[in-house]
Structure formats: structure tokens, C-alpha cells
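C-ALPHA CELLS:
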Amino acid sequence: MSRPAPTPIYTLRGAGSALNTLHFRCNGEDTPLLFSGSEKGAIHIWNLNSRRTVEVVEAHSGSSVIWVSTLQSAGSLLSQGRDMQVCLWDLREGGGELLDSVWTGSVGFCQCSLLETSSTNHLLAFAGQQTEEIKIIELPSKKPVCTLIPDSKLGMVMCIKLWKPDSGIGPLLLAGYEDGSLLLWDVTQRSVLSQVRAHPEPVMCLTFDPKHLRGISGSSEKNLSSWMLDSQNNIQLRDSVELLNPGVSQLCVREDGRLLASAGWDHRVRIFGWKKLRPLAVLQYHTDMVLSVAFSDHQDSRQRLLAAGSKDQRISLWSIYNEGAETG
């Protein structure tokens, strides 16, 4: 007997415009929170217990917010807007006080990537003013670390992911480009370790699982491209996953390494088992493009949620495959 189609456990309304980005902060917090960034420049902070907005930060002078994240230090929020600014906000006193900002010069949609290097320091990577340029700085000092520009013309930087291998070498960065190329950069050496052509179209999104050294990327076509890193840090293309309809906005792997979620241009969220990329579920609720997906960081695995933000101005929250369900 087939399972009934999943439905959201609840939805969040009132953002007032398309929802480009989502970020959970539930681990170790008294109140589990969800942060959303909207097309009209608002950052909504949602209390997941009351299911209501606790604060709205009017950010980036009304320009679209394309990325949000929180720093380890309590009460600090980072946001990136189409006004070419990355802003640091203090939320402790309420009202969202602007503490600092960084001008990126980038006119594209490439989301920042944040890597914690200590309890008080982070690396922030973002697309720069030049077409193929990636800049990395330290936070909170804003000290420049490096600028990464490929030797060949690959077009605009579309998506990036900073991560730190367990092997002890310095941080690495994965980047997807407009011509469909995927590059692995050594940040310390400022050099390319590996380069492959993952897609015939621009790489719209990527996600990476550092525990298993596996990643997957999507574009405007019907195929997701999966890949892995070998012992020499070479990107090895693996199986592709064919979707029913073309176009993926975002990809996200759950922290336990069991599930992959994709945000589809066809209004659907698709769930796959991360190990074998087996299709598990199609979540149908939204009436327009799904632009963002995120898994929560609850310590109790039974409370884990999946959030999806859409162009239809709604956020859907789902509880799926939480208690020992077979994924594969």
C-alpha cells in the first residue's frame, strides 16, 4: 500500500515577497528560530514554537536579500543583498542594529559562504566585482585573505562552498561557474586543485558533504550532477539524477547525511536518499518556483524540519524521515 502524499506540518505567511534564502538556528537555543530573506529586502525572524514573526529587519535599502546566516556568537546575523553589501546585524537588543558591512561589488546572485575557524573568527567568501572573481576575508576583522581568479574564461561565479578537510590542510573552496565548470580551490595556496565540466548550462547551485567527500550540483537543465573527491582532491563525476522537470534553485543535504532536498522551478521539493540518490518523495504545496530549502539543526533528531521558501511568498515546514525511516 502506497504512503499518502506528505503535507506540510505548517506554513509561515506574511513575508510579503518571494523568499530567496532560509537559515535555521535551533541547536542549543531556548527558542528555535528560522531566518528568511525576501525579494523586497526584509529579513524575517520566525519563532518556530509560536509560528509567528518575532522580528523583521528592513535590510539592504529594499534590495533583494539573497543569503542569511548566523555567527556562533549569540545574536549576530549576516545578510547579503543585491545592493552589493554583506551586513552584520546585532539582534540582541531588538530592532536589528547594523554593526558593520562589506561591499562586494558583485551584481550576480552568487550566495556567500561562511566557515567557522574558531569560536570568534570566521572566513567569508563572496563573488567579487570582476566576473570570475572570488574574494575571501576574515571576520570580524574584514582582513583580506585572498582573491581567486581562474586562468581560463569560465564566466560568472554562480555558487560557492567553503569547507575545511579533516586531513589538516587549509580550507578549500568549491565553485560553480557560468560555463558549467566546477572548480576546487586551495585557499591557502590560491591554486586550482581540480576542474571538471559538470553541466552544459550554468551551475545554479551546489551542496557538499564534507564527511563523505561527496557533492551534487544543479542547473537549468533536467539533470543533477553528482560527484566526489578522491584521495588526491580530484573531482570525479559520478551518476547524474534525471528530474521530471528542468531547473533547480537550491540543493541541501541533511546534517546526518541521509537526505538530499532540491528546490525546483516546477514548484516542487524533491527528496532523495543521499547514499544512493534514490527518489523518496515529491513535496507538492507551493504555487510558484521554490527558491530555497534548508534542514533544521535540532539536537533531537525527532524534531528535525525541512523548510522550503517560494516565489509564492510562503514558507512550508515539513517533518520527514526522522525516526529511523529507510532512505538509502
Notes: The radius of gyration is 19 Å. The longest strand covers residues 235-242. The chain has a mean pLDDT of 92.
